[in-house]
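MODEL INPUT / OUTPUT PAIR
PAIR INDEX: 1
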Amino acid sequence: MLPYGRQSIDQSDVEAVVAALGSDWLTTGPRVAQFEADIEAVAGAPAVTVTNGTTALHTAYAAAGVTTGDEVVTTPMTFVATASAASLLGAKIVFADIEDETANIDPAAVEAAVTPRTKAIGAVDYAGHPADYDALRKVAEGVGAVLIGDAAHSIGSTVHGRPVGSLADLTTFSFFPTKNMTTAEGGAVASIRPDLLQRARTFRTIGVVREDLRHPDEGAWFYEVHEFGNNYRLPDVLCALGSSQLKRLAAFKARRQQLTARYDELLAGVPGLRLPIQREGVDPLRHLYPVRVLDGRRREVFERMRAAGIGVQVNYIPVYWHPVFTDLGYRRGMCPVAETFYAEQLSLPLFVDLSDADQDRVVETLHTILGS
């Protein structure tokens, strides 16, 4: 089965991990700080590493001060963690509909959804195309909310030369194997605000602080916990892999863009198929190549592609369709643009080591199915 996404590991990655295994530090060592510095160089903002993309979201919402009684406005067209991580802190999730063209959260819908109780606005860079953060920031500032970017799909993307990581108050990354780079499991939180970054760092380290102590005279061993946190520390072994992968990020981006351009060319004009767009000023590192299969044929195309050994995927089920949200009273129909998008969406295989021949096979199979 040709997968829809997979990691790219070479000998330099293996050597980096082996070197970490042979060092004195398997965790909480120098490779953590190095990887965080390497992320900053790409993201344009200082970063704190965490154990995965979901814990990155949990950490970001905690750093933003989200708690019981607050509202968080976010998109339904994402993996459930974008919403559930805020729910775990007691927030009420308010879903705002998406833009038809990009599948990113619609700033106009967000503006209609915010209230004085809105603590955070959570955007998602769907498929690697950054959300409209300039418009979202105006809405966030109007209600005093923290702007959070879920950039699980988009590390390495830029908007008018500004890197993802510098566009929101807090930005989260995922380094799962199917993403643009990997640490096997891992994630990070970047922030342009030092106060939020420090809160994120403390939260991911179980709430432990060694400065501004209430009892500073106990001794050099002493530490305190002022607020509860979690142990979300990413070990040196995985950070070593991450730093090695970041050295190849430019090459990853070039290949993904080449494959995206080939899809654009080879699928242009195919009846019953709508291709993704790229807005002016956006230079995306594509995580997904999401097409829309029209005329109610998405399930048929999905099943026939899978039967042909091509691992297409659907990204995503609208979050509020999950029983955990329907049991809270959320109902289908509340975000009609997102639901229409979901009914048509199909992700074609896209990963760095996808060969032109395998991509041609994907295109030919899709042509055959839609032409029948």
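PAIR INDEX: 2
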Amino acid sequence: MDLAPYASDPARTRGRRQAETPAPTRTEFQRDRDRIVHSSAFRRLVYKTQVFLNHEGDLFRTRLTHSLEVAQLGRSIARSLGLNEDLVEAVALAHDLGHTPFGHAGQDALDECMQGHGGFEHNLQSLWVVDRLEHRYPEWDGLNLCFETREGILKRCPLALAERLEAEEPGGVGGRFLRGQQPSLEAQLTNLADEIAYNAHDIDDGVRSGLLSIEQLQDVPLFAQFAGMVDAAHPTLRTGEPRRFLAEVIRRMLSQQVYDVIDTTRTALAKAGVGSADDVRQTSPLVSFSEDMKCASAELKRYLFRHLYRHPQVMATTEIGRTMVRELFAAYRAAPMELPPEHRGSDAARAVADYIAGMTDRFACREHRRLYGRDLFALAD
């Protein structure tokens, strides 16, 4: 692998919290990726909501398919920029491990339940999963990932929490938030690949669901631009094969955003004059869209927020998920013996939050039905 001088070099990693003998056939970041893929938390992503709940259709994105798409986009961009593809892939595959069932509604409900107990935030929970909650090794809890992978997973962190993390782990992943430093280019890239993936593919799921139409999306300049290109190249495709038309529009949108990130980032790297991975930490963020693409992406996000994420049908189902999370939390707090023995920690509220956050949508539904004797989704039909 030919790495640029400012890429993260696995031979120069800042290491693991527990020292290990290097693997004979894999780099440290490849080893991290493999540990993530084989984790229980990664497998559970297949039944965790992206936008549409799992029971609503077999072809909608889940947290797992979304994570795979982020990894693919991230690797493509990393290869063109000379960055470490394996680190990008590891961060991409792990970035949503801490997400609750029922998408952001579940996260918001769990955060409300945890007020007075430190709150809940899925980025920190993803780090908590790989640091503590996975139980696979006899010597330690967690997956014992490299600093660089863990840093990429924790992409946001309030100062108070960063201070706590720094006190627990001096020089660890919380320190950059206190010093105003940037993460690696690979971490910056994965964050942007996440945005590219969910914007484009939420369009696809929105149209597949019937909540959005291709005609409606003409109001979004970024979509309309590439729809016009497809019309010019394939005049009968829109009316004759609308699914194929939509796929081609989204393909072109994705490609253009990828090329835009590559070109903009190359220019920023040259202007900043960074010569090492350590130099990257002292600069402003370097991986980004151009200003025009940034504005177009923001406009698309606003459109999806208004017309898809806040669509009455989506809100109705996610509100049920929100209620389930609240009631599960109340039930376990009132009767801790309902928790499996390994989830009865000394910090009772946090133990309950960890257990609920690890649930898939369908397991949460089964547990709620077991504890309350009713099926909220069946009652809503």
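PAIR 2 NOTE: The longest helix spans residues 242-272.
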